[in-house]
Each structure stands twice: as C-alpha cells, then as structure tokens.
Fold this sequence. Notes:
Helix content is 50%, strand content 14%. By secondary structure, the protein is α+β, with helices and mostly antiparallel strands.
Amino acid sequence: MKISRNAFSIKLEELSKLSKFDEILALLTDEEMVRDKAMTSELYVWRGNTYYNKKEYDKAIADYDEVIKINPNSEIAFLNRGLAWVANKEYNKAIADFDKVIEINPHSARAYFNRASVLRVLNDYDKAIVDYDRAIEIDSEYADAYYSRGLAKVERNIDLEGSKHDFEEYLELTILENNVWSDYANYYIEDLNERINDKELSFIADLVSKIKDILRIDDDCITHYSSLSVLKSLIFEKSKFRISEGSFMNDPSEGTVFFDFLEYKFYSSSKDGSFSETFSPKPFIGSFVTKDKYDDLNMWRFYGKEEGVEAKGCAITLHMHKFIENISSSLLKAEEDFLKYKSDINFYRVAYIEHGSAIFLIPNIVPEKSVKLNKLMVELIEKVKNYKVKDKTSLEKYLNNIAFLFKSDSYKNENEVRLVIKGIEFVKKYNMDVTPPRVYIELEPIKKIVEQITLGPKVDKAKEWASAFHFRYKGEDKAPEIKISHLPYK
C-alpha cells in the first residue's frame, strides 16, 4: 500500500528524533526519491541532512546539489550545503552558499550568523562582527549570535565591555540550558571582569597569549611514553586518554623554573609575622616529545616505566591533528556548535632556560621566534615585578597557563611537547585511591590514531606483546607500526 506523503514525512521526523539515521537511509533509496515528484526535493533535503548527521559530508553535499538542480533558489539547500562545506573546511565555498541564502532571503539571521562564524574562523573579525550585528538586528533573541559576537571581540581583543554584555545576554537567553557554552560564557565574563577592572593584568594576559602563540606547534605526530598496562587499557579496552591538573606532575619542581625567572614569590606575610599561600588552580597538562624521540635512552629511563622499573614501558606515537580533531568533535553536539567553538586544545613546545643566564632556547624552531620569545619574556618579568595588586590569585591564573612550558636546559635534549588545556569543557574526575588524590580529565580514545607503538628495551617477552597488539589491529584500515627497542639499556 502506498504510504501518504504526510505519513511518510511524519515517519522520517520520528526516526530523526531518535537518531535512527540508517533506518532513514534505508527508506530514502534512489527509487524512492523519484516515486513522488512533488516530494523529490524534500526527500533529497532529508537524505542530505541524514548524511550530514552521520558526518558523511560529501554525500550530503551531493544531495543538496540535487535539490538546487530542482529549485535553484532553495534557501534550505544552500544553507545546509554551506554547513557541510564548513565541516569539510572548504570555507570559501561555504561563504558563497551563505551569500546565496542572503540574496534569496535578506532576512535570514542564520545565514548572517553562519557567514560571520566562518569569517571568524578565517580571522576576519571586523566583517564577522558586522554580520553578527545583522543577525541580531533580524532576531534580537538569537542567543548563539550574542555568544559568537562576544567571542569574536575576545579573539580580536576589542570592546571588552561589549563582549561581556554579549556573554551576559547569551546566558539570559539560555537561562534554562546547562551546557558547555554556558560554562564558557561564565568563564569569559569572569575573565573580562578581571581585565576590564585591572589594565595591568590585562596587559600581562596579552603577553601570556603571545608567548603561547610562539610556542604552539603544528607537527604531524607526537610521542607519549607510558607503561604497558596503560597502553593495554588504551588499545584493548578503548579507555580514554587522561591528563592531570598541573599540581599533579611527577616532578614537584614543575613550573618553578618559570616563576624563579620571574623572581615571583607566592607567599604573603601577615602582621603576626606568619606566611601563607593562596591556592591557584592550574591547567591540565599532557606530556609528550617530538616524534623522533620515540626510542631514546633518557626517555626510557625517566618515563617509559612499568611499575617503577625503567625501560619496561612503551612509547606511543600519535597523529596530533587527528587527536585534537577527535577531542573537539566529541564536545560538539549540536549542528552549529563548531561555529561558536574556540578550541583550547593545543600542543606547545617546551622552552629551556640556559643555566646562569636569562635566555630561553626552543629546539627546532626558527631563530626569529626565539628572539621574539626572549623579548616577550623580558617584558613579562618587568610587568610582573611592577604588579602591585595585593591579591595575586588572578595573576597566577594567567601565569600558570604557560608556567609548565618552561624548564631548565638540563632537559633540553628531550624536545618535550606539552598539551595544555584549561579544561572548562571537561568533567573533572578524581582518583581517591592514591595519596594525595589526583584530579584529571578524560579526553578521547586513541586506538584509531596511533601511528606507531615502540616497546621498551627491557620489556619481558616483547615479541608476545607485539603479537597481541598486531592482531588487535588486524583487519583495520590503518594499523600502527610496531617496533621493539634494542637500545643497549643497562
């Protein structure tokens, strides 16, 4: 019996609400698309949206193309195809589609919002802010437009008061929602309040941001040393990769080199002669090295351990960009989330201070960047020394964002790379089975982004371990190379 047009649409809506995308595709065969000419355009939109939700963006684009062939002025097809182009990082094509939507419907707030957000991704902040303004003029309750305009102003470092107002407006419009963007909005409001009320602190915050920009890396792969028991959990049990809050670094001297350079004192004295220190939260830190250090004697000695025994651990080489992409994707739940997301997930090189001097070295970096870093560090030390506000909690918050990116030149041969995350968007977890208890966050499983596994030179029955990992990946599209170190470790 032929199902009615209305009943078929209702069926698709029900399946979509339940995220039963494969069932929708089973209904929307090529034959079904042309069975009812009056529905063909609508069905291509449905199937395009379904492919989009399954992250099969090329197939989604192909279906939106079909809609546009049938109706060259289909607002929804151009709008949704633009979003698919964004997902594919083809930003110029996305802008062209959003331009077309605005041509068809000059009152499309979504088109202005989407175009603005792509312009923001391309760092064209001034044009982005103009488009956000237009979206808000059309729809004064467009919460995401307020949030994203505030974010554009933060990134452009202009109109801090206006940015704060935008985040407040977003929270007012989403008062019943409890999501990661509300957490971010509250964070930005607190941060903006500090910077608006304290110009010296704002200047220091800008210096910290510039230093991070210099140290940010863009490598293809990085390596993490760990124990075999952790590797087994990550590969066989698909556990999520964990990183701990900076207070829980294995080396208790972590961060001290940076603060020693600044000649910074954490303690404040009271009238009775006593001293106290106010706790300042630190970011979450992951420790890695450059890819070429996957089989290094010092690394095996200090980091590649199993139950405290040196060189019995492993080195895991990961695709860095895929790791960042997987973490970011896991946080983005709604269709437009990626357009208002400012990733806090980056990897940075560690800089090493030369013994007996105030010069920082950055391995494998162009000399111009080293010169620029050292100039910024000189500027930072002067600003921190002259900072007279008694409560240093906010100052330490900013300084902690880079404190773990500086070490003594005794470690310069490690070529260390670090992941630094504020952790706003992650659930904080606690391991109370150790003393002291450990605070950590879980990122994403890494099984599918491992390029290479290297077993330490003292691993017992290394070939059996290698065999187990080899067959765990058997039949998968891209299996990692598995190596066994034979360095002469004593």
